[in-house]
Structure formats: structure tokens, C-alpha cells
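Predict the assembly for these two chains.
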Amino acid sequence: MKEENKITRRQVVAGLGTALATVAISPVLASSVTETAPAGPPKIDDPRGKYPKPPFKSQPQPWPGLQSKMDPVPDCGETSYKGSGRLTGRKALITGGDSGMGRAAAIAYAREGADVAINYYPTEEPDAREVIALIKKEGRKAIAIPGDLRNEAFCKQLVQKALAELGGLDIIVSNAGRQQAFSSILDITSEEFDATMKTNIYAPFWIIREALPHLPPGSAIIGTTSEQAYNPDPWLYAYAQTKAATMNYVKSLAKQLGPKGIRVNGVAPGPIWTALQVSGGTTPEKQQLFGSWTPLGRPGTPAELASIYVQLAASDASYANGQIYGSSGGVGQP
Amino acid sequence: MAFAGLALFNPAKAQTEDQDTTTIHFIVQASISGLQEISAGGLAAQKALRPEVKAFGKRMVADHGKAQTMLMQLAKSKGYQVPSQATSPPVPEPMLTKASGKDFDRLYVHMMVPGHRQTVLLFQNYAIRGKDPAVKAFAQQTLSMLKEHLAAITAIDDTVKEVAQ
């Protein structure tokens, strides 16, 4: 890849500022730089008013919830994400790809040139159909593989089907999560605890183990963890410990797989407005006031994390391994 | 160099605390928590097994109903625009509507304790730091009632020993 092509593409994506920086680099580059440098005032967004603020309508849905029924509907970058060939020819499997951050990643990956398989729980089909259509619109392969991640046999089938239909695999985004709020540990049944462990800890294990023999050097594995891994809320006893486990497996696997040329990283969101939050993932009061406690005064929307999933999958982030990239509006860790 | 260019176009704006925004935030939070209390309390008044839980639910509906009316009148008289998402009755909490018998009592009581703790903190904060005198007075008045609620539900919580099966 030519150096000046990289800079030009970055300019186009980043807009302002880089024009001034690159002039200093070399006279050879200067001419190509001034041809594509954007003119006029910088285009920047005020993050505070960019996406919906609380209070939100009280809107409980039965698990797992559909984002298409939310008010407002989360923005996953459907109309805003613009790709620039960062993942050309890549093949990605994304769990929880029907809505929320998985959806934002699926859309972004497709716009960056990748073929994408998405997994989701069968009742999430209406949301998933929209994502499949958006991926196909980019001229990329879009594979829908619904099923229950709590089942080991299904997790194996999921990987085999993705491999077969995509013709290979080099990005795994283990993002699907079960989040249920309980005021007290006394209110959590064994069944509920088990469901959370199976979805959030066992499924990533089963999927990565099944896929690993087929992942070439240069592949990327990304796990969705959370600020809850570092500073958990008291009503998320079951969920939060699985996010700590995720953060931890990212780091141990990064050490194990780094020598094989496979990078493993994590994304730690703060409060993001997704179907999780209206289907029992938080308390009724917090659902209405979601994100109000952050310095930006609002929850994040999935579109705001898409570029992180792209960044960690892209080959130019070749030194990121065992990292956890946060996005939380100013609260918590990392 | 790039940053100097940025500064010319976008001078940093210092964030000043807007008294009205803070008061509106308090009103929004107080309204939402009050309406949630009324909703859950109504379910308890209907469905609770233990008489003391049933009675507590009835009390929540009555006490928070009055407080909510006062709060809305106050907001209206001062011309504060409170979004409808914060003033419409919430959808009843599904975990509570689905539960019955001992399970209901356990879930309801367990939800009420931290909920009330947070409400006390919310009102305490505005009662001390609030800038609008009328709203501050409302917060101070309501605070003693909220502390009584918290004491009552904490006492009931101590007697609820069941565990989910």
C-alpha cells in the first residue's frame, strides 16, 4: 500500500487538520495533498447534542427486545457511516449482529469492504433482516445465522456455516450479550445465572475454539466487554462479572495467539442506548434516565462505536493486541 | 500547528452551570422516580401477599401521588418545561406484573430498598444545593417523608428471607 494513498484516504475521512500536518512531510506529497484538501471551516460535531438525550419513554419489552420498536430507535450508522476500503476482502462473523453495537459493526464492516455473517437470537429476525439488506446494498456477502448461543452444538454449527458461506474467516466479533438487572442476588435463579454465563462466557469460548484452526495470521478477534468489568453496578451482579471475564480472556488469548499472528482485543462501552436496556438490562428508572449520569449527559448510540470495531479489525492497527478500547462519555474505566 | 488552526475556528466555550437546567434535571428525575413508585406501589397494593407489603404499596401510591401533584404544579407555576417522557405514567415493570405470591413480595421489596435510597440522595442533594427557592423547599419538605419510607421498607426487607428458586 502506497504511503501517499494512506494519507489521502485518512484526510478524506478525518477532514480538517491533516492538510496542515502533511504539507510538512515532503514536497512530493504536497501537490497531491492540496488537490484533495478540503476547504472551508472545520466540520466538527458537538458530542452533547449529537444524539438523543434522556428522559426516555418507559418502554419495557420482553427479552431479547427489538431495536426497531424502541423510541428513539438506536442509530447504528445506517445513514452516516462512510467506508474507505479499510477491510477490503475481509470475512467477518459477528454475534448479536441484528441490533446495537453488533449491527453498527456489521454495517461498518460491509461499508469498509468486508463480507459479513451475523448471528442473532431467532426472535430478532425483523431487526436482522434490516442489517442483511444493508450489507447486501454494499455489494457484500451477507449471511444470516440465527440460533441460541447457549447451545454448544449450535455454536459449532455457527462457525462452520460462516466458514462455508463466507469462504473463510478472519474477523470474529464476539459481541452478543445477555444483560438482566436484579436488585438482589437473592432474586437470581440458577437458570437465569446459567443463561448469562452460557451466552456471555461459554459461547465466546465455543466459537473461538471452533474457529481458531481456520483463522489465518493477520486475523482479528474482538470481544465486547464493558465499563461494568471495572466498576460494576450493584444490580448487574451476573452480567458484570461476565464482562470482567471477557476483558480477561481478551488479554490471556492475546498472549496465547499473538505468536500466531492473531490479535485479540476488546471494546468497553459505557451506557449505550440499545435493546438490552429496554428488555430488563437496567432498572425501570434508569431506563428512562439512561446516560444522564455521564459527563456528556446522554447515552452513547451504537454508531459512535462502529469505528472502534473497524479500527481493531483493520490491518493497520497491527500492534493492538490485548487492548481494551473504551467509549463511555466520560464515566468509568478503561 | 493543526491545533492552532482549530482554535481560530472554534474557541473553547467554558461550561457554566445553568441554574434552570439543574432544577429541570431535578424535576425530571423526581418526577420519573415518583411515577415509578406509584406504578410499583399500585401493583403491591393489589398483589402483595404480606399485609405490611400491601400497606406499604398503598402508602407509596398515596404519598407519591400527592408529591407528584405538588411537583407538577410547582413546575407549571415556575414555567419549567418538563418533557412528557418524564410526566407520563410508566409501563408497569414486567418482572413485577409476572410475579405472584411470595415471589412478588420478595422482588418488590428488594427493588424498593435501593430505589428509595437513591431517591433520598436525589432530594437531599437538591435540598442542600438547589438554586430555585420554591423547588428547594419542596425537596426539603418531601425529604423527611422519603426518609420515613426508606426506614419502613428497610425494616420490611430485614424480614423477607426468601430466595429465588
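Chain B has six helices and no strands. The radius of gyration of chain B is 20 Å.
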